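Why show two proteins at once? Because comparison is the fastest way to build intuition. When a single record is shown, students tend to memorize it. When two are placed side by side, the eye starts asking what differs. So, the first record is below.
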Amino acid sequence: MVVRREKKSRKMRGSRTMGWGIRGQHRDRGSQGGRQIGMHKEKWSWLVKYGKGWYGKHGFRNPTTKLTSAISLRKLNELLESGYIKIKEMDGKKIVDLNELGYNKLLGGGSISIPVTIKVGKATNKAIQKVKEMGGEVILSPTE
């Protein structure tokens, strides 16, 4: 193989098409892989079946918002009665740590039938009041 002393582009200067032929002149883009066209035409059946959310604006995620994982007293009571959430006994008190379970807020919807001490990051005033009326208490222990 011959070693070029100069680049081929130097030799091709002034040749108009630079060696890419008379018709296309290297202007086509070839196969574009995943860039699909015809979603309103020939690929419509694929779009209907698999392309949920293909068109339209889809919003954005606000980077300053903090996600809150909340649980209501109603749901907590159901989980306690079904045995899904285990109650820990410490110094004669029944303790439920919602922070360990992935919840960081206790809401006041519904009621609770078991007097327990609940550890959670945040709680509404109504939730605290309902737990105290039942004979339990809410310990606010922020996580983060």
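Second record. Ask yourself what differs from the first in the token line.
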Amino acid sequence: MDCSQNCTCPEIGAWNVHCENETGLCSCQDGYHGQNCSLQCENGYFGRNCSEKCMCQNNSPCSPVNGACNCSSPGWTGDFCERGRAYSYYIQNHTD
């Protein structure tokens, strides 16, 4: 192995600014992937090396770090954006 080359990792995306000695790869933070951790997870994936699939429904994006759903699509709510807001309003205002 040629140790004369200096390899660095980005401050955002990698756990450390220096790559691993044996592999030359960066150790990515959750939400990032790629040889030098410069790529953020594609929509629909999250976690370490973007290996987890999001559970969000109704075209709602998730956090690339922890998979939390962002119910940005109009009319949806709930942990996975699975409930219509009209349904939630009805449940809150019509308790038996």
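One difference worth noting in the second protein: The chain has two domains: 1-40, 55-93.
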